[in-house]
Amino acid sequence: MRIIGINDSSHDAAISVIDNGKIVFAAHAERYDKNKNTLYLNFGIVSEAMSYGKPDKIAYFEKRRSKQIRLALHGGINGQYDRCLYKTLGLHKYLQDTEEIQISHHRSHAHAGYLTSTFDDAAVVVLDAIGEFETASIWRADGDKLKRVWSMKYPTSFGLFYSFMTDYVGLKPGCDEYILMGMAAFGDRTKYLNYVNDLFPHYDSQAINFHKKRDIGVTINTEQDKFDLAAATQHVFELRLMEIMHLAKSICNSNNLVYTGGCALNCSANSKLFNIFDNIWIMPNPGDAGSSLGAALAVHGKRVEWSGPYLGTNVGGHYPVHRIIQELAHGGVVGVMNGRAEFGPRALGNRSLLADPREISSKDRLNLIKKREPFRPFAPVVLEEEAHKWFDTPAPSPYMQFAVRAKFPNLIPGAVHVDGTSRVQTVSKSQHPGLHEVLVRWQNMTGIPILTNTSLNIKNQPLLNDLRDAKAWQLEYPTVPLVVGS
Ligand SMILES: [Fe+2]
Fold it and tell me: How much distance in Å is there from the Cα of 117 to the middle of ligand 1?
């Protein structure tokens, strides 16, 4: 049985393919058309997905009719839900006569999370901006089965709250929420806390409709006002998050948490969840692109073996360990492209820009290359077996999903945020043998098992995908080496 899961005509269009219970392909459409968070599939990604053969079923990640009704009644951040291109792009003859099954938005999220986990039971929490009407849901998972036991509907929404505040400080909602999260560390969370808390005083109540722009009583006069608002927003988000997680634990009576939906990308908040649950699984693509996989998994109805996030375009090659070390020793920064692209928003070693974290100047150099704001943090990648010596990691963090305290920030200033935390990626030998070997050799050279790891992308574009993109990089940044496995 081959099932193709699709997100199309919403943000973060994506395709996943499951073949006989194995995930054989999963990718974002943005990597092919170069529009970040692209709404629509394109010929490139569909052709690649179809190369795995004729699907028996198509799983669509939402209930289209219900979503159309909600958009007609209330509008939405995207709103362009007027067509479903995947059947009409001339995408492939196979798709024309294949049965389509529509899975509700939160059901897709929940299955993406739980059926990629190893838990026998779990509390599954889905938090995002909005699906059809649902904005939050809790599912009790047992064996391969999930049962929705609680849900919250529009207009109350964790994600819309965060997007509203992202917009309020002048950033792009639905896109720049991670920037607001990074800004929070520079702000005084108390200054505007009452204003922000009044907007969202309890997990299931809010004071305004976050879809509509309005004045909340705070006038932004300085850049610091934006940082202070960011800090208050992050704090209120975390307060409400803890409330709903306690609710999930009490309903489901499990120490295992599966957390999914776009809000699960908030790594600053995620680390606090270990105060409530013993074990946490956040799959590397918990947002809507990951729901293409979730829809396919819901149709599949059984757990799949999760072998990692490297599920996209394959440029082949052996991991260029020696050349990476050479370039790091020589200039401190190197781009790497090898094997299959990561499925998710984070570069995890196969489409990464690696740098020496020991000097703060490496952060400045990366900011210059990436042309991004100087306050934004960079993340470390660390040997899993050494991680506890360098960070307060409660558990392995293979997908950069938890911000944790750095124990020796002065030794790795290039990979620590202003608040002393780092969004850590831990690497084991089985998870990524090539990157693991790079870190072992780097440790042998420097005494430090850590490198800075950021996404390999040209400014304002998605992560690099294929060898044509590698050539574009070399033209754009002729002085920044990019090594490609061979
Ligand atoms: Fe979602």
Answer: 19
